[in-house]
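Please check this one:

***
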Amino acid sequence: MLVSSTICTSFCHSPGTRLVTYCDKYLLPKFCSSMRKPRKLTTSYKEAAEAYEKAKDHDNHIRMLLEHLGQPEAAMRVAQQNHSLTGAKMVARFLLKLGDYSTAIHFLAMSQCGEEAFQLAQKHGQMETYAEIIGPNATAEELQSIALHFEEENKHHLAGKFFLRSGKYAKALKHFLSHHTGEDHSSLDLAIETISLAKDEVLKSQLIDYLMGETDGIPKDAHYLFRLYMALDQHEEAARTAIIITREEQAQGNYRSAHDMLFSMYQTLGAQRAPAEMAANLLLLHSYVLVKVHIKIGNHLKGAHLLMRVAKNISKFPMHVVPILTSTVIECHRARLHMSAFSYASMLMRPEYRNKIDAKYTKRIEAVVRRPNSYELEENNSPCPFCNHSVPTNELFCPACKNNIPYCIASGQHMVRDNWSVCPHCNFPACYSEFTSLLETESTCPMCSQALIPEDIHLIADPTAYLQAIGTHD
């Protein structure tokens, strides 16, 4: 054996000879295999590592790289390439000495040492790291093991998350509802996802009871009920819930908030599935939002017509009845709609409203009532986009073809065929001239609030396809 060692050593230091090739190819692997610890008589760890590598003694190669050469990256590569369980454990132990639990677990998991990685994570409180590392490739058994670990630690959100991924929907829902707090709603999001996947009526009823407050006496944000119905494709129930939500916001005087909520839910449902009441409420709230925009830039006639649309439905704005009626009188008077101004001023003179009028407007409103003016600026007509029948500009129903006419989100007036455009973000229609004019002073879409400039808006030559998609008959 000593002779073989000498031969190998001398051959290895004679590059270029055939004997070196012969030694490398035949003698050294056999010698290394028989020795198991090649060149241990020398202090050259690098040469020893190379010999172990040639001998395909991966475990000792890894040991040399870790313990003597300080090359953990190379050791990781050798362990992974050769699927060495012992080598992977050595790398993990090396990383543990450095306190790098995350990398140690990651390495074991990537080396197909799942059980060792799980045990290490469990021992050092790194289960979340382990769960993140195994990701979408985890087996149902692994996912359940993780879920049970979190369950034992009363980490309900994480337990529910992994029960959900393993298909244990009842357990997942139980943990999500146990974890939900007033500040953290992420568990409710996952509870809805659980029900949409489970398709289980019992679990669905449990979640609805929880959202309605039947379980703990605390009703939850109705948005979650809307989202649950949408996830289950129960669009009628979702629409009813949306109407209830926005009605409550309106009743509290939060009109912009109600508008944005209703718009979002309307977009989620889609124009074809949204009921007429929902569309009508959105129109009213949008008209209210547009009033301030047009009054600010001096469009008093548009502001007056928008206010009259709102005032005709004043019961839906209970917190601001008198201010809205007061603004309607003032804007109608400015726009020379004197008969309309008189009509709404007379409403304000009713006992239930009169004492609530702002003192700075009282005399002006009383003057409108005492000295009525019969003049009313005649409203312009424009053609119905469906049948071309002449319809008042602010009228949204065509008496000829019985269609509800889409409204312009920039002016509130009805759309016309030869002046058609849409918001590139929300796809709601707007008269091209009105929209581009509005964007000279405003920087966002009045419907979806996304940033826009006039150049973003394009004239649509033929809106037939759009009309076919949204046209509905009474």
About this structure: The first strand starts at residue 381 and ends at 383. The longest helix spans residues 276-296. The mean pLDDT is 84. Residues 163 and 294 are 54 Å apart (CA to CA).
